[in-house]
Design a protein that fits this description.
Helix content is 56%, strand content 5%. It is mostly helical. It folds into three domains: 5-95, no CATH class; 111-300, hpI Integrase, Chain A, CATH 1.10.443; 312-384, no CATH class. The chain has a three-stranded antiparallel β-sheet. A hairpin with a 7-residue loop joins strand 2 and strand 3 (170-174). Helix 1 (5-12) packs across helix 4 (70-82), helix 7 crosses helix 10 (248-259) and helix 11 (266-273) crosses helix 13 (290-298). The longest helix has 50 residues, at 308-357. The protein is elongated, with a radius of gyration of 34 Å.
């Protein structure tokens, strides 16, 4: 069935599929309040009546929703009328907007909270989601557009291209722990007869038949999946908001963990967060390579690892590598010193033989010969770097 032209014009103003979904949801909410199922009905009145209707809707919203949320509800409705040539007095509408209140939700999850979330579920998709969001720092809006082709292996981690092909595109990474959980989730999908391709969604909706066409998870589905795991996580509520945002709290955990390290490169950290304009001119004068981004990310892998067992294992492996490197350096130093000692002894021997064969040395006193030998010895030491 063809879409109504008024709806088509509305959607034409929107780029991202996620934005389209969110805007249409708010428009449908407005249509439900008007007790109609036809988008054309929203236009069947003169402009004065439509203006009055929007003002009544705004008054209803002020009585039922957070003051901070109302502009996000009204913006899609205003866009619908703009795209259908209806001239509204938006200045008057905006004067009616309630004063914004101080936002809650500035808290962040701790590692122990994320551990509780993982313990609260056995679903491989949910576990992969939690670790994906906490180890990449991605906004949840990335997930509906993320495909398997945007995720590639790099060492024992994975590289993730967020918002691929968009002007906001950026690169981040998954820890070995998160990479393993994601691979386990993909294995489960393959066992359910799904044929994975680069175009397959990274996270798909629930399914009954695995071989059926895969549909990507939407933000609402992600929220529902994670909300179920929060039963043992302590959260306080102020007004309509919890102190820790359900989804964004994982991004905040990534941000704080990444930047709290000693000697963290904040410019690269901002790149890994997808903050393209935080540090002025960085996009033009500091276009860090993926290798440079990964080098900085690797320094944070231990801190970003959630499982105590995995973190201890990585710490042991890291210490083992450090000991191996120290032993290697010691071995190379000892080899170099032995070579220098050999060269020094060889040169001294040559000089002694040379002096014994020189008849002019017979006229020198013992002290003069010793002084000469000492100077020659120092010169040889300098020559061989001993």
């Amino acid at each position: 069935m063809a879409q109504k032209r008024c709806l088509v014009m509305f959607l034409q103003a929107l780029g991202s599929p996620v934005t389209r979904e969110n805007y249409k949801y708010q428009l449908d909410r407005f249509m439900e309040w008007n007790k109609t199922h036809d988008y054309d009905d929203l236009l069947k009145a003169d402009e004065k009546t439509l203006q009055r209707n929007l003002e009544d809707y705004l008054i209803y919203l002020k009585d039922n929703f957070s003051p901070n949320y109302i502009p996000s509800i009204m913006q899609p409705v205003e866009l619908f009328y703009t795209m259908n040539d209806v001239n509204l007095n938006t200045k008057r509408l905006h004067k009616m907007f309630p004063t914004r209140t101080k936002k809650g939700g500035y808290g962040t999850y701790k590692r122990e909270d994320i551990q509780k979330m993982l313990l609260a579920t056995k679903k491989k998709r949910t576990r992969a989601l939690i670790l994906f969001l906490s180890s990449t720092g991605c906004r949840v809006g990335v997930i509906p557009e993320l495909k398997l082709g945007h995720i590639t292996n790099i060492d024992d981690c994975k590289k993730v291209v967020c918002y691929a092909g968009d002007k906001e595109e950026y690169v981040t990474f998954m820890t070995p722990e998160s990479s393993k959980a994601f691979d386990d989730y993909l294995d489960e999908r393959q066992q359910d007869n799904e044929r994975l391709t680069p175009e397959s969604p990274a996270f798909r909706k629930d399914y009954v038949i695995g071989s059926a066409p895969a549909e990507t998870m939407l933000q609402g589905t992600v929220r529902n999946a994670l909300t179920i795991t929060l039963k043992d996580v302590q959260k306080t509520k102020t007004g309509n908001r919890f102190n820790i945002p359900t989804l964004h709290g994982l991004r905040k955990y990534f941000n704080i963990t990444l930047k709290s390290r000693a000697n963290a490169n904040l410019s690269i950290c901002e790149k890994l967060m997808g903050h393209s304009v935080t540090i002025p001119l960085d996009n033009h004068y500091a276009p860090f390579s993926d290798e440079a981004l990964f080098e900085e990310y690797k320094k944070a892998i231990l801190d970003l690892t959630i499982s105590n067992e995995d973190r201890q294992r990585q710490e042991i492996e890291s210490n083992k590598k450090e000991i191996e490197n120290l032993n290697k350096e010691k071995s190379e130093w000892e080899k170099e010193r032995a070579e220098k000692e050999h060269e020094y002894a060889k040169r001294i021997k040559e000089e002694i033989l040379k002096e014994l064969k020189d008849p002019s040395n017979s006229d020198k006193s013992l002290k003069e010969q010793l002084d000469s030998n000492r100077k020659q010895s120092e010169k040889i030491k300098d020559d061989v770097g001993f």
